[in-house]
Specification:
By secondary structure, the chain is mainly α. It has a domain of 62 residues. The chain contains three helices and no strands. The mean pLDDT is 75.
């Protein structure tokens, strides 16, 4: 059993090292190494050549991929969740106010009993 764990650990180490090396090989060279003429601003391709926009700015979903229905459903869920959280917060405030009122009444009762006992 220990041998298989050791082999697995070694394989994992080599795989992660290979992944890092591949990522470094694919990364672009630093800005200093790029010649000056290639740093000039390249004109954008015409709109029909550009890929379609992915996602929307509202919720981060892939609207073009999953369709408008998915986006609308997700936004409804988000609005519903926000509404429920607001209702929950209002409910908690009401409960806190009630508890504060009860504590004040109990304190008055204790004060009255002390006043009656002192007479």
């Amino acid at each position: 059993m220990r041998l298989s764990k050791l082999v697995f650990a070694l394989l994992l180490m080599f795989a992660s090292t290979a992944y890092v090396l591949a990522a470094e090989a694919d990364s672009p060279p630093p800005a200093d190494a790029i010649p000056q003429e290639s740093q000039a601003v390249q004109p954008l391709p015409p709109p029909y050549m550009q890929p379609p926009m992915r996602g929307c700015k509202g919720c981060g979903c892939k609207r073009m991929h999953k369709g408008r229905r998915h986006h609308a459903r997700k936004m409804r869920r988000r609005q519903h969740k926000q509404k429920m959280m607001a209702m929950k917060m209002e409910h908690m405030k009401k409960i806190e106010q009630r508890l504060a009122n009860i504590e004040a009444l109990l304190q008055e009762l204790v004060d009255l009993k002390k006043a009656n006992a002192a007479k």
